[in-house]
Amino acid sequence: MLGVPVFVSPSALLLVAFIALTYTRPGQGDTPGWPGGYAVGAGFAVLLLLSVFLHELGHCVVSQAVGVPVRSITLFLLGGITRTDTEARDPTRSYLITFAGPLVSLCLGAFSALAAEAFGRGGLGGELFGQLAWVNLIVAVFNMLPGLPLDGGQLVRAGIWRRTGNRSAATRVAGWSGRVVSLLVFAAGFLLTVANPKQGYANMFWLGLLAAFIWVGATQAMRNAVVLERLPRLQAGSMARPAVAVRADLPLSEALRRLAAERAGAIVVVDGLGRPDAVVNEQAVAATPEQRRPWVTVATVARSIADGLTLAADLSGNDVLTALQAHPATEYIVVDADGGLVGVLAAADLAYVLSPVAR
Length: 359
Prior knowledge:
The protein is an alpha/beta fold. It folds into two domains: 6-232, no CATH class; 236-354, CBS-domain, CATH 3.10.580.10. Helices cover 57% and strands 13% of the residues. The chain is built from twelve helices and ten strands. The chain has helices at residues 10-22, 37-65, 91-119, 124-143, 151-164, 167-195, 197-230, 236-239, 252-261, 282-286, 318-326, 347-354; strands at 6-8, 70-76, 79-84, 243-246, 266-270, 276-280, 302-304, 310-312, 331-335, 341-346. The longest helix has 34 residues, at 197-230. The radius of gyration is 28 Å and the shape is elongated.
């Protein structure tokens, strides 16, 4: 759709099956499975899933229109997610992208209400579209709750971002707001269970799932804020571990002696011009018995440097993350402008710099 892959999680299909099996037409009491009820329930579930998809498609269309590429749309048990390659560059774009989803849901609700009137409230079509109208209204209102990762939380974030100019701080505030919303949703499920135990346990289950989803999403957003704050300090050259440059025919024992003497963090094989050609694999070294190391050359325990695993020393900020995401690996060779060895960048070191525990 619009060049964007759409994925349907198995959990979304589980939701369709659950609604189909438990669907009760208004006026039919508490007994599901009235004649044709399973088929109608499945139809209603599919319409609901389609509504969620159109909600996410609203985000997608506006996102692409304002210059934010969309990676994918995923439908799952509790709704949908539109993933983008980058974040909006300013609060205005963020407002537009975020508001598009609830606006689509409100429009779908209005259309469904009109369709219900056209079919007549007493008929099957009227009942289906009447319920669909209410569901889309609930989806729109629920998504506007002021906490990440909900759309309302995105709007709160954009508003604080516009006022303060600090996107990371705005994300943290909206993330904490999301945690509060999560606790309130869970409390609502608990109170419904206490008030009506017969039906409350089902409400507790669904609202508990929603609360967990909101809490996890808010926490992830806050962690992403930490990454954004620390992006400016990322520079391949400064984060690279010092490395010992050796020839391929050097005995492994001598290479390890030099590594210890220079207190370096890696051993890199270079060619005759001093350009990196391979990196010694630590696991292969550990697997080589100590008594054999004087008779084993460095080339034996080294792996060649694949395309994309060489980084320029002046690479910095988001460009570092982009390069690592394009070619996932545990280690990268860092070189200067002339192709000379600077050191080895370990993915684990980068992960630590971006982790919440790092300062």
